[in-house]
Automatic annotation (TrEMBL):
It comes from Septoria linicola. Belongs to the cytochrome P450 family. PANTHER family: P450, PUTATIVE (EUROFUNG)-RELATED. It comes from the Eukaryota. This is Cytochrome P450.
Amino acid sequence: MGLILLVQKWPFVAMLVLTAVLGSFTWLMLVRPIHSSAALLTISVYILAIRPFHKFLVAARRSKTFSEFAKSKNCVKAPALPTPFLGAIRYKIKLLLYPGGDLLDDVFAKKYERYGPTHALHDRFGVPKVIHTVDPVNINVILRSRAEDWCPAKGRANTMYPLAQEGLLNSEGEAWMRNRKLILRHINTKRVKDVREAEPDVQLLFDAIGPADSNGWTETVDLLDLFHRMSLDMSTTYLLGTSANAQFSGIAARKREAIMLDYSLVPSKRDREMTYEEAYDVVRNYFSWRSKLGSKYWLADSPRYRKACSTLNEFADGLIKRAMDNRSNCQTSGEPASSKYGLIDSLVKEIGDPVHIRNLVMDLFIAGQNMTGTMVAWVFAQLSVNADLFVRLRAEVLDKFGTEEAPRDALTWDNLQSCSFMQNVIRETLRMYPLLANIGRIAKCDTVLPRGDGTDGLQPIAVPTGCAVTCNIYLTHRRTEEWGEDAWEFKPDRWIGRKLGPEFAPFGAGPRVCIGQQLTMSEISFVIARMMQRFSEMRTPEGQDNLTKGYRVVVAPKNGVKVQLRLARDSTPHKSPLSGAEQA
């Protein structure tokens, strides 16, 4: 302790002493050349000792300047987490091998309950290294009002390595601004406004659910799996212009043969190659492990993971090349370029680098595919245990859009938004199960969070440059201070007359808010409406728990969403109602 105080008070003297030691050692090496193993051992010990001492001096000096900054801002020290022996390693093991239960509720929630809404891990000098917060005021400062003081944590790029490096979500500074402007210019707003383009994928979903028995009930199906497949097809069609055909593996062989399309770039199981669907599933599992390992992400690696990454990249590369060849041929012939290659076609017009295009598209694909499929699954997980909500939601949909036999208004973005109860159900689902349970940021400069310590927890705390901050959105959405005593209950009616505030951030906030949130919301609304038109009832098999959470890359139902669905009497299985006007 005395050495720490000495270095903090007289860092210049400490540096002089270090320089003298280095000089003396160098002189001894010149006067007495190395001729023995003992001398080599001496050098090794010296090298191993001097680096930690140098880091110690730098940290001590940094501590002094940071203390002066904190004092100038009238900041106090954030509540400290204990640092037991091998605490970090034990914590990682706990995250990786948590034996059942609910990691979010049993570990994270109890930690915040014990140490407060904002707490930190400190170094030996008392300087924060990592800060954890669920305070919406702090989160609003980090993500929105002082966003320029923060940059994304490196964890996401490391988790996804070697996929989608330098894409939209993994870039910073000017590169990020260029990427975001580029994507915003070329995102197809027509798809957002006319979500009925997703109807073919929804029809495949109905085929995958399967036929009904004489009483109208289907067999037990896992909606989580089916919605993920549907979302995978929707994402690849929109971004790449070609479906991954993930839903076909959920359809009976006879029907698959009747409706299979020829996509030469989709790997075939007949060739014993990894399919796009299988590759994505492998990558998603590894992402879960790598995100929990943090800076040790490289421990979760294997030839199978590398093969899966190559499969995804090769799929995108083939389509990018096809779009570039199409554009080149059209320029030569003078004909207008085809726009059938999704977002890729728009990016090809402006970017000449196929690797850059692939990084942008894969980044968006991985993020978007997780969102739509998982969120729709959570909606139906809640409806499976709340029959009254299912009845209310279906009544609103049929009142607005009619049945499949007698459709009314078109299933457009504006009309879907006008279904107030449906939108409240979606918002409540996003509140209870935000897909991004944690959002990480790194301080780019010495800065301040407005709340964190003091007797009332409302005093500001200083944050040093390089400090990592984790915003736990999942628990922020369940704070009783903002949401009431029933914050842990699913109640869509809480949104009646409620305005959105900083306590609600399912898509993030500020400059880096999710760029595809409107598209995601439109797809979720469309799928829910079509499911309500097709099925009139839903029941859960005995013993099935659809609400247990699994925390991988996103928060998803751990046991799937296994239900039986009853075909509506007024449904026509092979009819695809798009709008009342079109039926007329």
